[in-house]
Design brief:
By secondary structure, this protein is an alpha/beta fold. The protein is 42% helix and 14% strand. It binds flavin mononucleotide. InterPro entries: Aldolase_TIM (IPR013785), NMO (IPR004136). Pfam families: NMO.
Length: 328
Amino acid sequence: MKTAITELFGIEHPIIQGGMHYVGFAELAAAVSNAGGLGIITGLTQKTPELLAKEIARCQDMTGRPFGVNLTFLPAFTAPPYPEYIRAIVESGVRIVETAGRNPEAYMAALKAAGVKVIHKCTSVRHALKAEQIGCDAVSVDGFECGGHPGEDDIPNMILLPRAADELRIPFVASGGMADARSLVAALALGAEGMNMGTRFIATKEAPVHDNVKQALVAASERDTRLIMRALRNTERVLNNRKVERLMEIEREKGDSLRIDDIMEQVAGVYPRVMIEGDVNAGAWSCGMTAGLIHDVPSCKDLIERIVSGAERIIRQRLTGLLEGRAA
Ligand SMILES: Cc1cc2nc3c(=O)[nH]c(=O)nc-3n(C[C@H](O)[C@H](O)[C@H](O)COP(=O)(O)O)c2cc1C
């Protein structure tokens, strides 16, 4: 399947693995890229630019195919040294960057001067248009269903994607709620040039996270995520657990006066404990509604092949069959 996204990134299938904190290590990015998709290393999981350069080198040892690096621009008090992270990326020879969080305008000149293709992940049409205006090559349109930060507009992809298609000139992929062949066909029908998956890629053989995390996703249903931190305007979709229930109790008690300090115990330092140690109840960690569509832990190759061949079947048999009056 050839789309504007496969052409832009030089990949075989229009499937991207979104950057994920403590999940997007070299093993996963290489496995996705080797399977013909676009794997992405999560830049800030590496605590320094030097460590990121090492992680990129590890990934280059595992794949000769294109992969990218995610740079998330956080509303942090002490900003990470982004220019140095960008230098590490560029000097390592990586030519694809997924930006997310705040608008990457301040770093576009450095990225473009080095010939980097930028795909910005955002949750609204207005932010996607801004990304187009500042020179991003593509956007990843992240709907309300997504794991992680869906923004504050709460627009699901059934509306957000055709709205993006109506307004954008640069290509975009559908992100959030994407999990299988049906997602890919639907994304293409709604005007996207491919799809970006987060949660689904955690439950794969190569994702270098504790098996408890993968099993928690297999066990969870589409009703098991919760939205937290709305009062902070930093809404996050997470998998429910006891700590998340406690956090939501605190949110109800504090109302609009909630401060990040009130929920530190439930959100700080959680990722290594969940992803590495396997304590899935350690606190709040991002998870999408696609948990309800995850029933197994395949290899990335099997997952991507299943999606691509399933999409072809849906298009050729079910959809074409409907046009030709055949029961599908
Ligand atoms: C555990 C987890 C961690 C994530 N960490 C990041 C991150 O550090 N930076 C980022 O831009 N997106 C992050 N995301 C969002 C994903 O890249 C992707 O946009 C999202 O998962 C898509 O929705 P889906 O989970 O329904 O596929 C994370 C998602 C998950 C599930």
